[in-house]
Amino acid sequence: MKFPTLDRQKEIYLNGFVGKMPAVPISACGLEEVAKKNMSPQAYAYIAGGAGNESTLRANRLSFENYKIVPRMLRDVSVRDTSIELFGQRFSSPLLLAPIGVLEMAHPQADLAVGKAAAALNIPYIFSNQASRPMEEVADAMGNCPRWFQLYWSKSNELVKSFVTRAEKCGCSAIVVTLDTTVLGWRTRDLDLAYLPFLEGKGIAQYTSDPIFQKLIDEAEPSGKRSITMQSISGLVEMVKNYPGENFFSKLRSGRPVKAVQKFVTIYSNPALTWNDLKFLKSLTKLPILLKGILHPEDARKAIDFGMDGIIVSNHGGRQVDGSISTIEALPAIVNAVQEKIPILMDSGIRGGADLFKALALGAKAIGLGRPYAYGLAIAGEQGVKEVLQNMLTDFELTMALAGCKNISEITIESIHS
Question: Which CATH architecture has domain 21-190+270-417?
Answer without folding.
Answer: Alpha-Beta Barrel (3.20)
